[in-house]
Amino acid sequence: MTTYHASCSCGAVEIEADGEPVVQCYCHCNSCRSFTGSPVNAPVLWPRDKVRFVKGEDKLLHYSKSGHAEAGRYSCGICYGIVGVYIFEANLFDIFGGLVRDLTFTPTLHINYENSILPIKDGLPKFRDMPEEIGGSGEMMAE
Length: 143
Fold this sequence. Notes:
Layout: E1 3-7, E2 14-18, E3 23-24, E4 26-27, H1 30-36, E5 44-47, E6 51-55, E7 60-63, E8 72-76, E9 82-87, E10 92-94, E11 110-111
Parallel strand pairs: 4-11
Antiparallel strand pairs: 1-2, 2-6, 3-5, 5-10, 7-8, 8-9, 9-10
């Protein structure tokens, strides 16, 4: 089984994910943009039980809009670099595509395209919000 590795900017916090990700995509939601400062995010999602912190867990900062103890965003307390996001409702952990050193990022769709500020014409499906099977409307948008 493949194990993927990622870390914060300074390397104080390291994370690993076992097996292949459930999905790789682009996210255009307002929340991702406000957290990353980027016009589009590149989520790579694994089941939560396949992801673990292997170094620097004591240095993690955690922020949760929902108030759930584990859900929310994780950052390094030294460099403040993003480490990942635990999506409690889906039991998935998102390690941003740019952080995973040994993964060839291969997105298959766009989510939350209704919030896009950077239109991307790449032929991939563009969901207004999310696919139906993960709680969205499943409604598609044109490029």
